Amino acid sequence: MRFTRTRLELAAVAVLVGAAAIGAIPAVPTAAAVGTAHADAHSHGDRPDSADGDLVTDVNAVDRNTVWAETGRVKLAFPTYHTEGIAFSKDHIFLSAVQILEPTVKYASPQNGYDRTPGKGIGHLFVMDTAGHLQKDIVLGEGDMYHPGGIDFDGTNVWVPVAQYRPNSSAIIYRVDASSLSVQKQFEVADHFGGIVFDKQTGHLVGNTWGSRRFATWTLDGHEISSWSNPDFFIDYQDCGYAAVSKMVCGGITNLPQTPAAGGASATYELGGFALIDIGNHEVQREVPFQHWSTAGHVATRNPFKLSADGNRLTMRVAPDNGDEGNGTEIITYQATVAPTTGR
């Protein structure tokens, strides 16, 4: 979730790029079904999927010298507005986005606990086939809660938070069946939660607030189990995904000031990166910068981000550009081969 204003895209953009790029979006291996929304929190077993385990091991082997190669780029041929989160099932690509109808406006001083007006907008969850063709546009949100955030696929469901577009506000957590595409409003929560992950180890949900400054863990019926402050200030996490044994990998960005001669705070640059976070003990276990760039000049981990692993190969898929920027929204794939120091 970034705080960037967008305008409506007036027309659909060009068709998808060649088959070679399309082929660069392989389906992420799926987990075993996690059952219904109100299944016992401990009924999912304690053995992680092998791909989840590879992801933890491989991320721990990444450093600043890791070589990432771009292996695919797919242009989306429909209006995508301001992209937020991405997830992959066997049959679909899911992309969350916010369509701004009326931008928020900062108050001169806080009013009723808010620092800005609510604005107006429409929350979208775009459902595509694995080649990036739009199949369905699911509209999510209620009233002032129209801003979808980072999303997660648990093997059966896609989890989507939709919040007000201002901090210290409120959000709805939705569950979308990845096969039937049916939508279930799971619960509401008092704060702006701009990202969510399903913990396969416990069956709980983990959310992060505006700027990822705070995390919370809930049961599937919305009972808050714990809340903790983010111990790290390197980047703001935008989109996260589950990794084995109650861990998650989060991608994100922060805007830092340039030197005074280059414009100072009014001429910021984007610092990107990703982190491996232990959900249980709240520690950041690994953190690496990622300075690759989109067509519009954004750092690749700006918003939608997912990292997967197959053996020693990591695959990162991102969609940093809005529909009205650069070449429009493109799903970019990067890959890297690592040499883990620990056994599998």
Q: What does it look like?
A:
This protein is mainly β and 344 residues long. The chain has one domain: 6 Propeller (Neuraminidase). The protein is 4% helix and 45% strand. It has 2 helices and 23 strands. The protein has helices at 19-22, 50-59; strands at residues 69-75, 82-88, 93-102, 106-111, 114-116, 120-128, 134-140, 145-148, 152-153, 157-164, 171-177, 183-189, 193-199, 204-209, 214-218, 224-229, 236-243, 247-256, 269-278, 284-289, 305-310, 313-318, 330-337. The strands form 6 sheets. Strands 8, 9, 10, 11 and 12 form a 5-stranded antiparallel sheet that branches. The chain has a 4-stranded antiparallel sheet with strand order 1-23-22-21. It has a 4-stranded antiparallel sheet with strand order 2-3-6-7, with no helix packed on it. A hairpin with a 4-residue loop joins strand 14 and strand 15 (214-218). It is globular. 45% of the residues are buried.
Task: Considering the chains and any ligands shown, give keywords for the structure.
344 residues; mainly beta; Neuraminidase; 5-stranded antiparallel sheet; 4-stranded antiparallel sheet; 23 strands; globular; disordered N terminus
How large, in whole angstroms, is the Cα Rg?
19 Å
| CATH architecture level-2 label | 6 Propeller
- Briefly note the CATH topology name: Neuraminidase
Strand fraction: over 45%
CATH class: Mainly Beta
**Biggest beta sheet summary:** 5 strands, antiparallel
Distance between the termini: 34 Å
- Separate helix tally: 2
Q: What is the average of the pLDDT values?
A: 88
